[in-house]
Design goal:
Length: about 260
């Protein structure tokens, strides 16, 4: 028998986006979609990630980050990726690790938002995939396709609510670890495969969170530290609704990641 392809791809080139149409086989479901794949160049990647690092170091670490985490007065709570994007990301040859790097996306002042770029590397740290840019969102924004931020577990509830409820959640200290200011996190490839493809998902939520902890050598029990983190969660369509999405699996939280720096 001839081998059945994992996917077939028809490419339509257009400016400024590239559209892919594909149908998946050998999975628990079939998916036929036409979506913009959010590819960016290496130069664009280096520019927008450097804008994040610049903001962290401006004014001796005293510059404000709030404006990059609010859209029309609503807090950003996650960065969204379509299932197509994750499919191409995890299919790259030799990939062992997915790197999530923080950036400030281009645009007018009110559009320069915090965002996340994903790409793969092999065991030697060599880049194995294209660079994929996410879509920032908040459940308070009246935009089709936004998840409703259901909480996948009691532990995830604590971390995610720390981000939502903390009055100073965008303070510089939240993005600083014992290794320096955070540039992103590294995930094992299996975390992305499991969180996006273990069920009939339509996308992936990279949800913003805060871990509460005590730094090394801290002795004051009233002086915990909050550190910014990311939680991976699969998304499904809301019942009876063709646009909105929600976190799918009560056990589908993935947060075993390594901070950059040092990794």
């Amino acid at each position: 028998m001839p081998a059945v392809p994992l996917h077939s791809v028809k490419i339509k080139f257009g400016y400024p986006e590239i559209f892919f149409t594909h149908k998946l086989y050998n999975m628990s479901h079939e998916l036929a979609q036409t979506l913009p794949i959010p590819l960016i160049s290496k130069d664009d990647y280096e520019r927008i990630t450097s804008q994040w690092i610049t903001q962290l170091n401006q004014d001796d670490g005293n510059s404000k980050l709030d404006k990059f985490f609010f859209k029309d007065g609503s807090k950003l709570t996650a960065v969204r990726f379509d299932l197509d994007t994750i499919l191409y990301l995890v299919s790259s040859e030799g990939t062992t690790t997915i790197k999530a790097r923080f950036c400030i996306q281009d645009g007018d002042d009110d559009e320069r938002l915090f965002n996340v770029v994903l790409y793969g590397v092999d065991a030697n740290g060599i880049t194995t995939s294209a660079y994929f840019l996410g879509t920032p969102y908040s459940p308070d924004l009246e935009t089709p396709g936004l998840p409703q931020c259901q909480i996948p577990s009691s532990l995830g509830n604590i971390w995610i609510q720390n981000w939502v409820d903390n009055d100073v959640f965008v303070a510089k200290e939240r993005f600083k670890t014992i290794y320096g200011y955070l540039q992103g996190y590294n995930f094992e490839l299996s975390d992305f495969i499991d969180s996006a493809f273990s069920a009939d998902y339509v996308g992936l939520s990279v949800t913003l969170a805060l871990h509460e902890l005590f730094r090394p050598y801290e002795t004051d029990p009233y002086a915990p530290t909050f550190t910014f983190n990311l939680v991976l969660q699969g998304l499904i369509k809301e019942d009876g609704d063709g646009t909105s999405e929600k976190v799918a699996d009560a056990d589908g939280l993935y947060d075993i990641s390594a901070p950059s720096p040092p990794y």
